[in-house]
Amino acid sequence: MTPVHFSFSSAFILGLMGLTFHRTHLLSALLCLEGMMLSLFIALALWTLQFEMTGFSAAPMLLLAFSACEASAGLALLVATARTHGTDRLQNLNLLQC
Amino acid sequence: MHPTTLILSSSLILVIAILIYPLLTTLNPKLQNQKWAITHVKSSVKTAFLVSLLPLVIFLDQGTETIVTNWHWMNTALFDINISFKFDHYSIIFTPIALYVTWSILEFASWYMHSDPLMNRFFKYLLLFLVAMVLLVSANNMFQLFIGWEGVGIMSFLLIGWWYGRADANTAALQAVLYNRVGDIGLIMAMAWLAMNLNSWEIQQIFFLSKNFNMTLPLLGLILAATGKSAQFGLHPWLPSAMEGPTPVSALLHSSTMVVAGIFLLIRLHPLMENNDVALTTCLCLGALTTLFTAACALTQNDIKKIVAFSTSSQLGLMMVTIGLNQPQLAFLHICTHAFFKAMLFLCSGSIIHSLNDEQDIRKMGGLQNLMPMTSTCLTIGSLALTGTPFLAGFFSKDAIIEALNTSHLNAWALILTLIATSFTAVYSFRVVYFVTMGTPRFLPLSPINENNPSVINPIKRLAWGSIIAGLIITSNFLPSKTPIMSMPLTLKLAALLVTIIGLLTALELTAMTNKQFKITPTIPIHHFSNMLGYFPAIIHRLTPKLNLTLGQSIATQLVDQTWFEATGPKGVSSLQVKMAKSVSDAQQGMIKTYLTIFLLTTTIAIFLAMI
């Protein structure tokens, strides 16, 4: 595996680890999600360059657009949580836990 | 310039100018004299009539027709509209006749409406109507014809609703406008088709170019227009309702001039229809149905004006049949002769109505032969002319039409209907004459019966002369362009006369039965069918608006509100999402960390495997 592949793969795994093992705040999970999106962006851009498919150049931009939508949805959920629970601490989101 | 054409064109333009002049004097804000109606309007119509005799005589002598194009009105890049008048055989003959009839009617109206404070306005409306009618018959392009068409329609509305305090008059005027509008849809469709496909509204160009096209669609539009304006079956109820207007209005508009506008349109544009069988058959069958239906309705009416109105409608159906037979000149001949005796019938009715103190029910008249001899004589002359008594005016046109119908190889059903309608004509004409002039009086003794005023008698006498000799004069001076078939079996030749005599004898028998009761319980349904006008207005006037309004209501409520907004639109989307979210969230148990840890493990192992 080339160093570039290793770097974005490890960035992805690290972001995923951050998302999985988030301890205190919901916002940190969302930030890790953004990091994962960034690594995927780099991956798509590398795809275009490595395979020399100029038609694929638009793909990173599409990913960016959709990740923006997803980030805003996540932030909206954060705000809704803050409104109902008063904070975004994850200990408070245990109403439905059995 | 050759004197003939100079005299012809200038006298025809002068006629229109003479008619418009009194209207221009009303634009003056200074008050006119009280007798403006008589001094200005009647004398202008009389002068216009005398002037229009000059082109008629020139046409008789030399056969000149003329087209006068005055003014290039508007144009787009490819389409011109001019003001142009076509004075051909049809308009040169029709204009003097219309002016003669209008002159008589205006003189009569100066007596009939003399107690009306707004008499000057009434005459102004009549004059405006006449100008629109002359524009219509002399139009050389469809746009000018449409101006005249709409003009006569609007003046009809204003004049029918003259006594607007009366609710019936208002509804009758509205009915006239609505039914005419339905017909106008056909005219506008035909004009649009002509503008799109033939790129012109000039009649000469239309005739020239139409040979390459399938003209069925615009012809059906024109037939729809004629159905609306000339009260053919389907759009006919406005004509008997239009009798709410004053009698001069009924005499001018709804017997001689306006209602023939539809037929005149078809006559003018007849070269388009000559080879189109669909249009000809439609005209034939529609006309035959109209003439029989309205003659049947006329049999049991009790209002004298309504009987004459239905008689007009029946004759219009006959004209439509003639057009369907490919005989536009015969139809035009019938228009001309019909104008005389029908206007006279209306004027006689008006004289009788006023004399009996506004009594219009024939069951309350009677014995007027001795009390109003001149009027009842002219009523009889008019009825005889209407039924086609040999050598009166109606005979030349009606008999020629029935002969043409008999010797054609067209629809036999239309022929039978027309013959039955001809016998009905005799029946209801005799009924009118019997109830009005014969027998003993059934009205109040103190009725102001007076026909001694010259402004009543002179118009009626003039029109009586017209009813007697007009047919002879017109047929002996103007040769037909299509050869009539002269030889036929004796029965066919006498068919019109035979059915008329049969109708008359039947009517005589029926009048002898009026004071005997043969059946204890008479069969009422047939009488009711005829008296209620075939139940047509009763059904259609309620049903059509109800259907339209319920359609609108169901579109607004069921389609828009309940379907688009609730079920498929924004509310539907939101309810669907809520349902899906609810059903999915039941399955989760919220152990996010566990799920994501497994995902992380799987992804890491996959990437390590890819690295190796």
TrEMBL record, chain A:
Organism of this sequence: Paramisgurnus dabryanus
EC number: 7.1.1.2
Enzyme class at the top of the EC tree: translocase
Name of this protein: NADH-ubiquinone oxidoreductase chain 4L
InterPro entries, per database record: NADH_UbQ_OxRdtase_chain4L/K, NUOK/Mnh_C1-like
PANTHER family hit by this protein: NADH-UBIQUINONE OXIDOREDUCTASE CHAIN 4L, NADH-UBIQUINONE OXIDOREDUCTASE SUBUNIT ND4L
Family, similarity comment: Belongs to the complex I subunit 4L family.
Keywords: Electron transport, Membrane, Mitochondrion, Mitochondrion inner membrane, NAD, Respiratory chain, Translocase, Transmembrane, Transmembrane helix, Transport, Ubiquinone
Catalytic reactions on record: a ubiquinone + NADH + 5 H(+)(in) = a ubiquinol + NAD(+) + 4 H(+)(out)
Lineage: superkingdom: Eukaryota
Swiss-Prot/TrEMBL GO biological process terms: ATP synthesis coupled electron transport
The keyword Transport is assigned to this record: yes
Automatic annotation (TrEMBL), chain B:
Pfam families named in the record: NADH5_C, Proton_antipo_M, Proton_antipo_N
Keyword Iron part of the UniProt annotation: no
Transmembrane annotation, as ranges: 6-27, 48-69, 89-110, 122-139, 145-165, 177-196, 216-235, 247-267, 279-300, 307-325, 331-353, 374-393, 413-436, 463-480, 492-512, 592-611
Sequence ranges assigned to domain NADH-Ubiquinone oxidoreductase (complex I) chain 5 N-terminal in this UniProt record: 73-123
Primary location recorded for the protein, binned into one broad class: mitochondrion
GO cellular component: mitochondrial inner membrane
InterPro entries for the chain: NADH_DH_su5_C, NADHpl_OxRdtase_5_subgr, ND/Mrp_TM, NU5C-like, Proton_antipo_N
Annotated membrane topology: Multi-pass membrane protein
GO MF: NADH dehydrogenase (ubiquinone) activity; NADH dehydrogenase activity
Domain NADH dehydrogenase subunit 5 C-terminal: start-end pairs: 428-609
E.C. designation(s): 7.1.1.2
Compartment annotation: Mitochondrion inner membrane
One GO process term, biological-process aspect: ATP synthesis coupled electron transport
Catalytic activity annotation: a ubiquinone + NADH + 5 H(+)(in) = a ubiquinol + NAD(+) + 4 H(+)(out)
Enzyme class, first EC level, given as a word: translocase
Residue span, NADH:quinone oxidoreductase/Mrp antiporter transmembrane domain: 139-423
Keyword terms of this UniProt record: Electron transport, Membrane, Mitochondrion, Mitochondrion inner membrane, NAD, Respiratory chain, Translocase, Transmembrane, Transmembrane helix, Transport, Ubiquinone
PANTHER family attached to this UniProt entry: NADH-UBIQUINONE OXIDOREDUCTASE CHAIN 5
Family listed: Belongs to the complex I subunit 5 family.
Function: Core subunit of the mitochondrial membrane respiratory chain NADH dehydrogenase (Complex I) which catalyzes electron transfer from NADH through the respiratory chain, using ubiquinone as an electron acceptor. Essential for the catalytic activity and assembly of complex I.
The protein's name in its UniProt record: NADH-ubiquinone oxidoreductase chain 5
